Amino acid sequence: MLKRVPMxxxxxxxxxxxxxxxxTAADAMVELNVLLFLHSLAEEAxxxxxxxxxxxxxxxxxxxVCKRRIRKSKLVKS
Length: 78
Known about the structure:
Protein name: Centromere protein W
CATH class of the domain at 25-77: Mainly Alpha
Number of strands: 0
GO biological process, one term: kinetochore assembly
Keywords: Centromere, Chromosome, Kinetochore, Nucleus
Order of helices and strands: HHH
Helix content: 55-70%
Subcellular location: Chromosome, Centromere, Kinetochore; Nucleus
Radius of gyration: 16 Å
Largest sheet: none
Shape: elongated
Strand content: under 5%
Family: Belongs to the CENP-W/WIP1 family.
CATH architecture of the domain at 25-77: Orthogonal Bundle
């Protein structure tokens, strides 16, 4: 299981952008967004493993899903 990011580290990373106003609950929102991203990544990796008839999710399944997500996000930005 992954450890949580320390709140002090998270707040310092958020506050590096001095020109952006940040609300009081921004650190909680960032942590929730990260959890949602990891959950969706795990779901997609599970479907990828199921497609390849594998009982366990392996690193290659997660990497394949990450590559697909990165490619998709690059297409959206352009």
